[in-house]
Amino acid sequence: MTVLVQFAADRDLWSSYEAPLAQALADAGVAARVTPDAVDPATVDYLVTANAAVVDDFRPYTKVKAVLNLWAGVEKLVGNPTLTQPIARMVDPAMTEAMTEYVVAQVMRHHLGLDRHIQNAAGAWRPERGQKLARERDVTILGLGELGQAAAAALGALNFRVTGWSRQPRFLPGALCLAGIDRLDEALSTAEILVILLPLTAQTENLLDAARLARLPRRAVLINAARGPILDDAALIAALDAGDLGHATLDVFRQEPLPADHPFWAHPGVTVTPHIAAETRPGTAARVIAENIRRGEAGEPLLHLVERGRAY
Amino acid sequence: MTVLVQFAADRDLWSSYEAPLAQALADAGVAARVTPDAVDPATVDYLVTANAAVVDDFRPYTKVKAVLNLWAGVEKLVGNPTLTQPIARMVDPAMTEAMTEYVVAQVMRHHLGLDRHIQNAAGAWRPERGQKLARERDVTILGLGELGQAAAAALGALNFRVTGWSRQPRFLPGALCLAGIDRLDEALSTAEILVILLPLTAQTENLLDAARLARLPRRAVLINAARGPILDDAALIAALDAGDLGHATLDVFRQEPLPADHPFWAHPGVTVTPHIAAETRPGTAARVIAENIRRGEAGEPLLHLVERGRAY
Q1: Which of A227, B15, B43, B129: CA 20 to 30 A from B70?
Q2: Please, what are the domains in chain B?
Q3: What is the structure's pLDDT at A307?
């Protein structure tokens, strides 16, 4: 029996995913037809989405066993009241690697103050002495899911003093783990470098507001590789302008692409990266999708199911 | 019996080393007088040097059991024909950590192309797709001493494909190790990112000349954290101007401070860092010096003795 999979994501993604999905489904032993076309919703067994509005109303998809998202973030799917089917988010090992590399690169850059040399057009020889070692540098990671755990491990291996904060208690080797909203200020208070890897939920929206930013040590550096709305843009700029915050490196924004007139672009204390920290890779992501379809057909539990109560 | 140690290094270093050396010698159980003053050379038991010309003529130091250098590089001491006493170079664990961090930071920066975002004043949202993962990136390290080995381990842990090259055969877990001048071109041929951590000797001076630079893959990036004269400056600039080489990040130079009119400063393909990759730290280095004096007094073999035949 052939299962019908509708690839309900941006059309330009289809060219990247068509061949890897066909291969991965064949490798998983699943007989499937995958189509990017609008088909009769009542005939679709699985929907592949990319958190975009190719499908707005999920109610006609009466037979769909799961909505399989290509990205890690599922806030738009979860916010759609017509979507009552199970949702699986993407946990792509290659994406986790890419995110870990982005976080390590940005943390090392700020740890060693590389910018002053990269931008030193003046030609001044100004060696700094007494540079801190990583084992003297406190880094706090907000969010200890797949991505936060991987970043914590990599930074720990580089000797950084890692504090992790998450909603639910976690235990990571070599890191101080704090849990729950009551411990957030404590986690922020030591963060010379703060890395945000939280999911976007009703609880994390605007989590980093003026009051929370004020808990950071003076001249702290903030790296947001999660979702834009977790951070209060105006409070961030005010903290930078006041000299309280040292720098912000941001990969995600409330509106993407970041509008050309947004103050982040021109602010000397902000580095904008255009949502490139970690992209899902078709080769590895297709295998995760195929494995979930195989599980769905075999009646086995799906991987990475979204718990609707907590929205990620 | 009190041993006499002359601190024959730059006077401004003395303020950093006086207290740590006194503490380390006391901790090692050595009764010593350490002085930065010019004393009767014939009475000195140990000389502490910093590869600078505070002492030019070592012949009057007839009683000296060892010359203990504060820096890893000993090329200036080895080049002094009056210095026939044993020389110990510094292997400071904190310096190794600092160098590893510098190498990781610069490799990650070039691996992910951070500069285009750090310098993006134009405010252009240009996400790049198909970014390589570290496990798809070849990094070659020239020099597999303490520093090269530590860098290889850290880069390997971050998933980079590491090739190491050294004069003598070395075996490092997870890295392809090539040895001897006959294998150098092979080591260069895959180096998307090349890290130079060689000692400066007659064999390594001008090792990276025009012919060797031409062996690198097109648009390779070069990082020199070893010694300036290993690299042919003019050949480097020619390779950058021709577009063959992608970038050079240099921490060391033939003349330091790098003269204000040197073309490296203004070249868009060169990042200058002012010899800050790894400084010796008084706290840890003083313990290495004290341990060697303890060994000398106890008749035990000294640590990190320079083999005069190979000059490092």
Answers
A1: B43
A2: 3-92+280-298 (3.40.50.720), 93-272 (3.40.50.720)
A3: 85
